[in-house]
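Input (DUF659 domain-containing protein):
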Amino acid sequence: WNKFTKKDHRKKQYFIPLRGEYIHIQCGAHIINLMVKDGINGMNDAISKLVAMSNM
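Output:
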C-alpha cells in the first residue's frame, strides 16, 4: 500500500508527468503552446498560396 504524502499531493496538483519526470503545469502548457505555434507558422506559406490561388 502506498503512503500518500503532502508532497505526492502537491506533485499531482501542480505538476504533470513527462517521460518519467514531473514538470510544472505552466511550463508544460508553454511547451505545448510553442509546439502549436510552430506548426501553425509552418502552414502559413501553404495557406497563403491557397488563398492567392482562390482569388485568381
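The helical segments are 6-14, 25-54.
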